[in-house]
Design a protein that fits this description.
Number of domains: 8
Shape: globular
Largest sheet: 8 strands, antiparallel, barrel
Strand content: 5-15%
Length: about 1200
């Protein structure tokens, strides 16, 4: 909402209230000035606001709220239109200022480091500001470690920096303990302010961190909610800044600091822009191309995202836009860009993740993210303290020897300094030249041809075989610290290389490590990772059925497949190196210290990698190839432990999703590294060859998977010497304190343990009790998250969790009320107070609802009025940021849904006395009849409950599948079925709702979802049975032909070579790519076995016809043959029984529904049919061939046309050149 004020000079002051910006914050937002000419629509809204807001101070609050809501509606209608004239005009009038903002954003890293350095100096003078400076440093450093920085987040951090820059005035304060007239000091006044600033900085950092994790689509369609909240932090920073300036002014020491004014991050032009430009408008101008296009396609309102969840086609189109826009900025179609562009619109797990982010409310997102963010802050704090101690130590011990004026004097290592001086090198030297020079430096050829050692101690002679030309590449990469495109080593890089070695290592020792030690370590960890992934698949057979689906989604994830490619890419290390334990022992201490530090950091952040900043925080600086394999090994060991525990405990719904998200972020950083390296690839060199020479080929298969061969699921890793029992035992040393488990299972029966009185209505006419005492009894109704009540069923915007029921069991003498209750979220206690009015039947009531089943105490406050005689209670619950109205009646929840008889046609309480009496009579009859049937265990009662339960489960499961996946079978109709499900959720008793939802969630865990597989015909996620063409699978399994249950004979892209005669296999369980090789071999064997059975029966004149295992009908034409049931007769199933997806089979057979089936087409009823079908297949094959020929002809024609145009242009140029002569 907006309040407006018009000044004498015509300047319009718009103040954003918390209701417009989202969840309110403790401090009021500062005014936002807009001096530019506004569009007529906005001017009309403001004029209307000025006219209507002139109300007396004693006017009713409800009228003011209505007026403000009216202003807000008009303002949003104007500002959300595609032709936002106000913003466009403002952008044009302030283009120079906006360019200054963008210039400051580009200079964020340098300016932030400068400010941090100055603040550190001030902290030494005035330690009391450390409480605010340290969180500021931590948040800034975390931001600098993130690879992709959003301009909106950086703009907000600039506001934070502007606030902190006001502390520079403390440099002029000599005595902060000087007392004022009231006895306080500047230090005492600022200490509490510093704590408030620290809290605001932490909360802002958490909000920015959570915002950056959102998908671009979610950030766009929920921009009003998220950007509104971020804008409030800018207002809070401005308020804190004014408080600091005010305190310094009171101290009479706040003067203009010319040195600070000259800093680039406090430019005067930026300050001028900030005076006129509000943060929301700035956010709009800083939209990325993807956000702009998404906002043009979809109206970004506070509740519009709900429509997006129900429209799968629109959601996929928006995700496609975000992917195209994101990867178009890479500059080259490489790595991740290629992978995602090939499956851009059909990534089912990405669609599912976007839906989950849309469904999650704002406060829940912040609360969940704060747990991990606090861990990241702690790790960053520890690293800051450690870095400071290291810098102090180095500065105190470094001695600069000014022997001569050469640049080599800046080198810290004596060997490099001596070599640099001898060779006369300048600032830079080629890395290969440096390696060869070091080799010659350590080995000098004598005149007799024998080598003698110089400058090499006896302890380092073992390194000489490894400082050779054969190891130039790995040593050179280490010297330049993996910097892409760099072939030279500077003095600074040489110092960084020598400083990074352990204190007891010499320079030759460090060179030998990067020659062979790191390769041996990386290859060892690649085998360990393969072993861990193999154990994951082996452990899958022991996983509880309730966990199988979510474990399969993790094992079938794109990120895990890329981890396998990464491990297969690295070149094998020579066995002579791996078996030389004395050599590897020399490198063990260095590797162990790095890995131990990495494990400690991972444990500190809960093994969660949520962005590139967290990855840098955990693993440190340096190229990702130097630490990626140990990091993945530790992560996957943790994930394996979760999978092993899943055999005995039910895993929380989002546990495996969190693990998979960490892998996604790590692999994203790997592909970022690939893109950086690819930018320096020679144009004439193939990418696969280029990457085979970097980091021992670690990125080769990630760049090009065409040569990748997936491991056979039936085999183990092999007899590698790096896999031993000791490493295997380490899998069980991990604690899973952060994993989400449910000890009692997912079926929620706890709500039925709540036994409140089942009285239909309470007798409140007795005069023996006080008005307060008559509050005892059962009350039920609804609480809402909006201003619409329950009786307006079906209206858009209505939101409630369902029925709530409270039982007030005790009322104190002073009006205290006590009891308990239940709603779909859990069981809770009631504690409150009622204030009665003897002259009226209406009393004021306030109580707290505290849930007792949550790990964290959750309490909500309800305030309102209660009419004892009328049996109604209403009011509001929650606070300004989260809550809404509530309505309760003196009726048990089991009977409340019969109250529909007391409503009129519009859903309101009946006002006509006759109709009201009839409605009450119907309500009484239905309620009493329901109670009698229940007490007598009537079949009618149980039948009705069964039908309701089946209806609810069917609707709920289909809705959840439609929300998470593109569900092909029986899609949920949000328009017609949505209101029915909402009605059931709002009228069923809380215990039933909790039980039904938990049952539905348990059923959903048994649904077979091939999460990373799409139907080649209809393009939807395959749920249920999956049919695979075994003849269309390439060696890398990258390209496959898959069909869902309804598209088996449907046509696919004509450019595909798939034919109906190809060998097909149907699976009704998740089959991972590593298992396809084994499945293919067994399927081909089963097809040959079926042919033999047919031949045998054909040779026997009295042999009975083949029959279906289930229906026993004779089989003619195509059918299905079980791969696993390989007895003499075999198991054949007709197409009709297979389509029914039967779960029960004859007891004498070992066949079950989980067995894969191969399609067999060897049965024909006659020669005519055989000829016709063969002609049909030939026609289809010719049609496919014809399509390819047509495409080829079109391509050739395009090439010919291009050549003609180029030749014509060339001829024109030649003629012009000749004419000039």
């Amino acid at each position: 909402m907006l309040t407006t004020t018009e000044h004498a000079d015509g300047e319009v002051l718009l103040t954003a209230t918390p209701e417009m910006l989202g969840t309110p914050l403790p401090r009021s937002p500062s005014p936002i000035y807009i001096q530019d000419e506004l569009s007529p629509g906005v001017q009309a809204a403001i004029a209307d606001a000025n006219r209507k807001m002139n109300v007396p101070l004693n006017a009713k609050a409800s009228k003011v709220v209505e007026l403000v809501n009216h202003v807000e509606d008009r303002y949003i209608d104007v500002t959300n239109s595609k032709e936002n004239a106000a913003v466009q005009q403002f952008s044009a009038n302030n283009s120079g200022g906006i360019q200054a903002v963008e210039a400051n954003l580009r200079d964020f890293e340098r300016s932030s480091k400068e400010l941090v350095k100055i603040l550190d100096e001030i902290v030494n003078l005035h330690p009391f500001i450390r409480a605010a400076v340290l969180p500021f440093k931590v948040v800034i450093f975390l931001e600098l470690k993130r690879r992709g920085n959003d301009k909106k987040v950086l703009a907000l951090k600039m506001e934070m920096m502007d606030m902190m820059s006001s502390l520079l005035g403390l440099r002029q304060v000599k005595n902060p303990r000087l007392s004022f007239d009231d006895g306080t000091t500047l230090q005492s006044r600022m200490e509490q302010l510093m704590l408030d600033i620290a809290k605001t900085i932490t909360e802002c950092g958490n909000a920015c961190d959570a915002y950056m994790k959102l998908n671009v689509v979610v950030r766009s369609v929920k921009s009003i909610i998220w950007e509104g909240r971020l804008a409030q932090y800018a207002d809070m920073f401005d308020a804190h800044k004014k408080a600091i300036e005010s305190m310094l002014a009171w101290h009479n020491a706040y003067v203009i600091d010319h040195a600070a004014a000259d800093l680039s991050f406090i430019r005067q032009d930026l300050k001028d822009v900030n005076k006129k430009l509000n943060m929301l408008a700035l956010f709009h101008l800083l939209d990325t191309p993807a956000e702009k296009e998404i906002k043009q396609r979809f109206p970004c309102t506070e509740t519009g995202w709900r429509t997006l969840i129900e429209d799968d086609g629109l959601l996929q189109s928006l995700v496609t836009i975000s992917q195209k826009r994101d990867f178009s900025a890479l500059g080259a179609v490489t790595g991740l860009a290629v992978r995602r562009s090939q499956s851009m619109a059909v990534d089912p797990q990405l669609i599912s993740n976007v839906r989950q982010q849309l469904l999650e409310d704002f406060e829940t997102s912040l609360t969940k993210n704060m747990k991990l963010f606090e861990r990241k802050l702690q790790v960053q704090r520890e690293q800051i303290v450690e870095d400071v101690s290291v810098v102090v130590h180095d500065e105190g011990n470094r001695i600069v020897h000014a022997v001569s004026s050469g640049l080599h004097d800046d080198l810290l290592d004596p060997i490099l300094r001596d070599l640099w001086k001898i060779m006369g090198w300048k600032i830079h030297i080629e890395a290969r030249t440096l390696v060869l020079a070091l080799r010659d430096y350590f080995r000098h050829e004598s005149s007799g041809g024998e080598a003698r050692l110089t400058k090499l101690s006896d302890e380092d002679r073992w390194t000489l075989p490894y400082i050779q030309s054969a190891y130039i590449n790995p040593i050179s990469e280490a010297l330049v610290n993996g910097r892409p495109g760099s072939e030279t080593v500077s003095v600074m890089e040489a110092n960084a290389f020598t400083n990074s070695r352990p204190s007891d290592w010499s320079l030759p020792h460090k060179l030998a490590y990067w020659a062979v030690g790191w390769h041996a370590n990386a290859y060892t960890f690649s085998n360990r990772i393969k072993f861990v992934i193999h154990k994951m698949h082996v452990s899958l057979k022991d996983v509880m059925p309730l966990n199988t689906a979510i474990i399969n989604q993790y094992l079938d994830s794109w990120a895990l497949s890329q981890v396998e490619s990464l491990c297969q890419s690295i070149q094998p290390c020579r066995d002579t190196i791996l078996r030389d334990h004395s050599l590897l022992e020399r490198f063990y201490s260095f590797d162990e210290s790095r890995e131990k530090e990495m494990q400690n950091n991972l444990q500190s952040v809960g093994y969660q990698i949520d962005d590139s900043g967290t990855l840098a925080l955990v693993a440190g600086t340096g190229p990702i190839e130097h630490y990626i394999l140990p990091l993945l090994h530790f992560l996957l060991k943790r994930h394996l432990k979760v999978i092993e525990v899943a055999s005995t405990k039910v895993i929380g719904n989002y546990t495996m999703y969190g693990l998979q998200y960490s892998l996604d972020q790590v692999i994203q950083c790997v592909f970022n590294r690939i893109d950086d390296l690819l930018a320096y690839k020679p144009p004439s060199m193939a990418g696969s060859i280029y990457f085979s020479h970097i980091a021992f080929g670690m990125f080769r298969l990630l760049f090009d998977e065409s040569t990748r061969e997936l491991p056979d699921g039936s085999s183990s890793v092999g007899s590698s010497p790096v896999i031993d029992d000791e490493d295997n035992e380490k899998f069980h040393d991990l604690e899973l304190q952060d994993a989400s488990f449910n000890e009692e299972g997912v079926i929620d029966r706890a709500a039925y343990e709540f036994q409140g009185p089942r009285t239909l209505c309470e007798d409140v006419s007795s005069t023996d009790e006080t008005s307060a005492q008559r509050m005892k009894g059962t009350w039920s109704g609804h609480y809402f998250y909006s201003n619409r009540c329950y009786w307006s069923e079906g209206e858009e915007g209505e939101d409630t969790d369902g029925l709530m029921e409270i039982v007030i069991s005790e009322v104190g003498e002073e009006g205290g009320i006590y009891g308990e209750g239940i709603d779909p979220l859990g069981i809770y206690t009631i504690r409150g107070r009622i204030i009665t009015d003897p002259s009226s039947s209406t009393s004021s009531i306030e109580f707290q609802k505290g849930y007792t089943e949550e790990n964290e105490k959750i309490v909500w406050t309800y305030r309102g009025t209660v009419d004892i005689m009328d049996g109604s209670m209403s009011g509001r619950w929650g606070d300004d940021s989260w809550g809404g109205p509530f309505q309760l009646q003196r009726i048990a929840a089991d009977f409340l849904h019969f109250g529909v008889h007391m409503l009129d046609g519009d859903g309101n309480l009946e006002q006509d006395p006759v109709q009201r009496a009839r409605g009450r009579w119907k309500f009484a009859m239905c309620s009493v009849l329901d109670r009698v049937c229940r007490s007598r265990w009537s079949w009618t009662y149980f039948k009705s409950r069964r039908n309701t339960r089946i209806q609810f489960l069917n609707l709920y499961k289909r809705r959840e599948l439609s929300r998470l996946w593109t569900y092909p079978k029986g899609p949920f109709d949000f328009t017609h079925e949505g209101p029915l499900l909402n009605y059931l959720e709002k009228t069923l008793p809380p215990a039933d709702i909790r039980f039904y939802r938990s049952r539905a969630q348990a059923d959903l865990r048994h649904v077979v979802v091939h999460s990373n597989i799409l139907c080649s015909a209809c393009g939807v996620t395959i749920i249920g049975s999956r049919t695979i063409c075994l003849e269309c699978i390439v060696a890398s399994h990258k390209c496959q032909i898959n069909f869902c249950c309804g598209c088996l004979d449907a046509p696919i892209n004509r450019t595909s070579s798939h034919l109906e005669t190809h060998l097909l296999v149907k699976v009704r369980t998740v089959t991972h790519n590593r298992d396809l090789s084994t499945l293919s071999q067994r399927a081909k064997g089963a097809a040959a076995r079926a042919n033999n059975i047919v031949k045998t029966r054909a040779s026997q004149t009295e042999a009975a016809a083949l029959a279906c295992l289930h229906c026993s009908d004779p089989i003619f034409g195509s059918c299905w043959h079980c791969i696993f049931c390989g007895d003499e007769e075999g198991v054949f199933i007709c197409n009709r029984c297979d389509a029914d997806e039967l779960s029960c089979w004859p007891t004498e057979s070992s066949h079950n529904s989980s067995h894969p089936l191969v399609r067999f087409q060897g049965f024909q009823s006659g020669a005519t049919v055989d000829v016709n079908e063969r002609i049909t297949m030939l026609e289809k094959a010719l049609e496919v061939l014809n399509g390819k020929v047509v495409d080829m002809a079109q391509t050739m024609a395009d090439h010919q046309r291009n050549l003609d145009e180029r030749f014509a242009g060339l001829e024109k140029l030649i003629l012009e050149a000749l004419a000039k002569r």
